[in-house]
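stage 2 :: seqdesign
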């Protein structure tokens, strides 16, 4: 089961920057190669970030900050 992340303590600036980077790179890939590759890149990044979120779970849920 996927554990939910406490969204109140996520750094919004980091989420916006990473979202913009994923969007820009996927647009470039879709324009140069194939739109399907751009879509696969987006979903691949989202899946990877979700799967590896356990690396940052301690900093997201750190109540001392």
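stage 2 :: out
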């Amino acid at each position: 089961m996927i554990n939910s992340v406490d969204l109140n303590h996520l750094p919004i600036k980091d989420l916006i920057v990473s979202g913009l980077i994923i969007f820009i790179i996927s647009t470039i890939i879709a324009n140069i190669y194939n739109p399907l590759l751009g879509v696969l890149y987006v979903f691949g990044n989202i899946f990877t970030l979700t799967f590896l979120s356990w690396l940052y779970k301690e900093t997201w849920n750190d109540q001392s900050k």
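stage 3 :: structure notes
- The radius of gyration is 14 Å.
- Helices lie at 12-32, 35-51, 57-60.
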